[in-house]
Specification:
The chain is of the alpha+beta class and 333 residues long. It has helices spanning 3-22, 38-45, 49-68, 74-90, 95-101, 106-125, 131-140, 155-166, 171-178, 201-208, 250-262, 265-278, 299-332, and strands at residues 27-31, 34-37, 145-152, 189-192, 219-222, 229-238. It has 13 helices and 6 strands.
């Protein structure tokens, strides 16, 4: 998780918390003959796109927390909290300062984690994995393999290393000397299957084509930031074949199918829409009347639809009366 993104999200959330708690009466700043109130600030930012999306998210996560929050355990919350803490500290941050700068305490950050986990529980509760889903997952599934990798920054360097390896170069030794990956100290040793996210899909695809002892050509992949290209060389050390029977892998395939369904936008939108409807969400502030329009029909849109239907009925009635009047006139002639 990027620090600046957490800070941005926290800042926006803090604004709405401040506005909600103030009742529109607290002053943010005073000066000779004038003041700037929380209400002034709220009026200024409430129509911004970031504010609109923040309110939508607050509503959605609150609805899911109310319904599924009791299914989230303290153990799950602590696990996610510690994962974030380890990630922050690995980047050199003091975690307490990290949270404070983002506008959180340990308690409030864990409350945020609980909402996110409740949302996941809500999606999971609506997943329906079919045999067709499992068979679809099977087509792209590959069981775990053992391999070694070398990563470098340029294609030319990757080609030079490949040429060296082709001349009986020691992969483990070269990995320790030249690889930029964190696995270099272990000679680039990795294990992965088709569900792994630590090895890019393009690198996995190249690896699965190798026999034991073979080394791939350089493979390019974008790093986790999405901006930098890294070049991989992969040596297969222990390959595997899934065979023709999916039963030994059924549990994994069910998990893949579930995650695929939960990542599908149509599925998530339908679940969110159903939960918002069941919770009878009503928008009371006209500034945010359309924030949920992507998920459900709002009161304003319902009213508009009713008015449109009423108008159409009136026009239809007027038209019928006009036709009737015309017929009567023709008859009297």
């Amino acid at each position: 998780m990027k620090k600046k993104l957490i800070l941005a999200a926290a800042s926006t959330m803090a604004v709405f918390t401040l506005a909600a708690c103030s009742g529109g009466s607290d002053n943010i700043a005073t000066m000779k003959g004038s003041t700037i109130t929380v209400e002034d600030f709220y009026d200024r930012i409430k129509n911004e796109s970031t504010s609109q999306s923040t309110v939508a998210n607050m509503i959605i996560f609150k609805v899911f927390e109310d319904k599924y929050g009791d299914k989230v355990t303290d153990k799950e919350i602590d696990a996610e909290f510690n994962k974030t803490k380890e990630s922050a500290e690995a980047q050199g941050y003091n975690f307490d300062d990290y949270l404070s700068e983002a506008g959180y305490t340990t308690k409030s950050y864990k409350a945020l984690i609980k909402q996110g986990l409740a949302y996941q529980k809500g999606l999971e509760a609506n997943v329906d994995v079919t045999e067709t889903d499992i068979k679809t997952a099977w087509t792209s599934f590959h069981p775990e393999v053992e391999a070694q990798i070398i990563t470098v920054a340029t294609e030319d360097e990757a080609k030079e290393i490949k040429a060296e390896l082709d001349k009986d170069g020691d992969f483990t030794k070269i990995a320790k000397e030249k690889s930029t990956d964190t696995t270099k100290e272990d000679g680039g040793k990795v294990t992965f299957d088709s569900t792994s996210t630590t090895i890019p899909a393009a690198v996995q695809e190249a690896a699965y084509k190798l026999k034991d002892g073979e080394v791939s050509e350089p493979v390019s992949a974008t790093d986790s930031t999405g901006y930098q290209t890294i070049y991989y060389l992969v040596k297969m050390t222990k390959t595997s074949s899934k065979g023709n029977d999916l039963e030994p892998y059924r549990e994994q395939l069910e998990e893949i199918a579930k995650e695929t369904q939960m990542a599908d936008q149509t599925f998530t939108s339908k679940v969110i829409s159903d939960e918002l409807t069941a919770a009878n969400v009503k928008i009371k502030d006209d500034a945010f009347k359309n924030v949920l329009s992507g998920y459900m029909q709002t009161e304003s849109s319902s009213t508009a639809t009713e008015e449109s239907s009423s108008s159409s009925s009136e026009k239809s009635s007027d038209s019928s009366e006009t036709e009737s009047s015309s017929s009567t006139t023709e008859s009297s002639k």
